[in-house]
Design a protein that fits this description.
alpha/beta; six-stranded mixed sheet; two-stranded antiparallel sheet; about 20% strand; globular
């Protein structure tokens, strides 16, 4: 009887410990929640993948994210997407309007937007130019890029925890989130699409912090 009780207690303790580890001490309950929790504690540097896009002079993603010493809000999309990407595009249009209002009020936010295609093989600079034009994107605030090398694109997606799954019909299923990168080019927060204002407020807050040494 005592042996059974001891074994039961040990099993309960093991189960509790496993649950605590999986849920980050019961703070998160999904894989996406765990990702966001981990990113907040351990910022993720953008890998040095080559990027191309209309009006983009930076050769790599870290170089793009370092331009101007700005904070960036990043999303992932592809130009042929007719579902979540449309919602993402609308969200970024609203973010762009808010950044334009900041500038018009004489208080530039120090925040810019970057949309990265998950379909680098198709979304060449011409396709990105047409897509950006359809969204009335202003290049000074909102840039569009692709990663032309397939292996580098996969490495980027893995590093940032972006899930992209071909649907077998030439399209993709992918998670939609707003990723905030600090001036060091590190992903520091992940926000749900519905948390657009939170993402913007956090990015503005980061941009108001003193610039790292060597940046103005």
């Amino acid at each position: 009887m005592w042996r059974t009780a001891i074994v039961s207690v040990l099993l309960l303790l093991c189960g509790y410990s496993a649950a605590a580890w999986l849920t980050r001490d019961f703070q998160v309950w999904t894989d996406e929640g765990a990702r966001r929790h981990d990113v907040a504690l351990h910022p993720v540097p953008a890998p040095a993948v080559a990027v191309q896009g209309p009006g983009v002079t930076a050769a790599t993603l870290p170089a793009l994210l370092a331009e101007g010493g700005d904070v960036h809000i990043v999303d992932f999309f592809y130009t042929r997407c007719l579902t979540v990407c449309r919602t993402l595009g609308g969200s970024f249009q609203q973010l762009q309007a808010a950044l334009q209002a900041d500038a018009a009020a004489g208080q530039p936010s120090g925040v810019r937007l970057v949309s990265i295609s998950v379909d680098g093989a198709h979304d060449d600079p011409a396709a990105l130019t047409a897509y950006a034009g359809g969204l009335h994107a202003q290049p000074a605030l909102w840039q569009f890029v692709r990663v032309p090398d397939a292996a580098q694109q996969q490495a980027l997606l893995r590093r940032l925890g972006v899930v992209v799954v071909p649907d077998g019909r030439g399209d993709f299923e992918h998670n939609a989130a707003l990723l905030v990168f600090d001036r060091h080019g590190r992903m520091v927060r992940v926000f749900d699409l519905a948390e657009q204002q939170l993402a913007l407020n956090y990015a503005r807050h980061l941009a108001r912090q003193p610039a790292p040494e060597g940046l103005s």
